Amino acid sequence: MLFHSLDRPARQIQPGVAHLPNWLNASTQAALVTEAREIARSVAGTELAMKRPWVRGGQMSAYILSLGQHWHGRGYVQSLGGQRVPPIPESLVTLARRAVREAAGVATELVPWAGDFDPDVALINYYPPGSAMGMHVDAHEESSAPIVSFSLGDEALFRIGSDEAPRGPWSDLTLLSGDVVVFGGPARRAYHGVVAVREGTGPEFTGLSEGRINITVRQM
Ligand SMILES: O=C(O)CCC(=O)C(=O)O
Ligand SMILES: [Fe+2]
């Protein structure tokens, strides 16, 4: 909440990375939280239930729910246990396309996708208090289209670098509820992660009582 009152202009963080602060209005944020909760409930108790995946022998601290295709830590599958993965809501696709267009206005490397973003997958991450996400590359998509990332709830310290240097140098930015990050072009395979989530910093209007939700929209 601390930063809401400060001026945070939309800007290019590094080539191919755009930060659009406060891009989702309060009612859209609340609607996304409700939608995420409803989809999570619809697959609860099945193989597609929101869970903490295992990656290279370690269990992630964030929970993941897949839409469109299911991400299982080593790649994607269309269905699991004979059950179809829930589709991406059309409203989310529309939001993501708009975000890419606006991101291209501040990071010109994204211009090739400004009118040409056709997502197949959305991953909903839930970060309980105290969780994080280690540095990684989003590498299981064949397409070079950008990733669109929506933040809801508690503030996060997001870190992004280059595709060559898993140990930095980094750009660090605080992501608040309603912020969008789009990364693509020269940054599409950049290492990135969530260093920390700041407990109790999310606005009440999202309806999320604790933690953080991040939704990444992806083209395969
Ligand atoms: O939570 C975030 O801001 C980033 C999430 C992420 O990197 C991912 O889902 O691959
Ligand atoms: Fe990622």
UniProtKB/TrEMBL annotation:
Cofactor(s) needed for function: Fe(2+)
Quote the record's binding site residues for Fe cation: 136, 138, 192
Write down the PROSITE patterns for this protein, in alphabetical order.
FE2OG_OXY
Gene Ontology biological process terms, A to Z: oxidative RNA demethylation
A Pfam short name: 2OG-FeII_Oxy_2
Under the heading Gene3D superfamilies, the entry gives:
Alpha-ketoglutarate-dependent dioxygenase AlkB-like (2.60.120.590)
Keyword Metal-binding tagged: yes
Classification via InterPro entries: Alkb (IPR004574), AlkB-like (IPR027450), AlkB-like_sf (IPR037151), Oxoglu/Fe-dep_dioxygenase_dom (IPR005123)
Specify the Fe2OG dioxygenase domain's residue ranges: 118-220
SUPFAM superfamilies found in the cross-reference section? Clavaminate synthase-like (SSF51197)
| Gene Ontology molecular function terms on file | broad specificity oxidative DNA demethylase activity; ferrous iron binding; oxidative RNA demethylase activity
What GO cellular-component annotations does this UniProt entry give?
cytoplasm
- Record's cofactor remark: Binds 1 Fe(2+) ion per subunit.
The UniProt keywords, alphabetically, are: Dioxygenase, Iron, Metal-binding, Oxidoreductase
Q: Which PANTHER family match?
A: ALKYLATED DNA REPAIR PROTEIN ALKB-RELATED, NUCLEIC ACID DIOXYGENASE ALKBH1
Q: What is this protein called?
A: Alpha-ketoglutarate-dependent dioxygenase AlkB
Can you name the source organism?
A: Corynebacterium tapiri
What are the leading ranks of the lineage?
A: Bacteria, Bacillati, Actinomycetota, Actinomycetes, Mycobacteriales
